[in-house]
Amino acid sequence: MRITLARLADAANVSSEDKLNILGLFNIIRPKAAPGTLGHGTLVLDIQLDPSEVGKKFLMQVLLWGPDGQSSPGPQIEILFPKELYEQLPKGHSINIPIILPVSGAHFQVPGDHAFKILVDGQHFEDVPFKILSPLLQTENDQK
After folding, report:
1. Cα 99 to Cα 109: distance, rounded to the nearest angstrom
2. Which long-range contacts (CB under 8 A, 24 or more apart) does 128-131 make?
3. What is the Cα–Cα distance from 71 to 60, expressed in whole angstroms?
């Protein structure tokens, strides 16, 4: 297994032609307050499975890491490369599978460098780094 794409986006979907559509890539967040939550976000992954992985199940887990080294659990999914799908491919070819995970509501405590860490069967595979900036200070005009 290989992760060929890992990004934060506003939204993503897979078309009827199996095309991965991604809207609004970002890696900087300026919240209204800290601590706070990620208002809206999607973790978009594209994983590549090769023929030796047909029929195997993988557990993918996402952890949110903060600048202080603290982590909190995120979404988990099971990935299976079904034999039926493999039989439709030319012999020896790998397959790419898009994965779209909602991460809206992820909590953060402090501004700074953060990352979603992707683990597969307990092994670290990929980081999706992003920065949380300090909240904007409200001016008198903002409050009116």
Report:
1. 27
2. 128/6, 128/7, 128/8, 128/43, 129/27, 130/8, 130/26, 130/27, 130/28, 130/29, 131/27, 131/28, 131/29
3. 16
Q: Tell me how crowded residue 42 is: count the other CB atoms within 10 A of its CB.
A: 19
pTM for the complete prediction?
0.84
Instruction: Tell me whether strands 28-29 and 123-132 are parallel, antiparallel or unpaired.
Output: parallel
Other CB atoms within 10 A of residue 1 CB: 19
For 5, the 3-state DSSP assignment is strand
User: How many degrees, rounded to 5, is the angle at CA 17 between CA 12 and CA 53?
Assistant: 80
Tell me the per-residue pLDDT of 105-123, one tens digit each, with 9 for 90 and over.
888 888 999 999 999 999 9
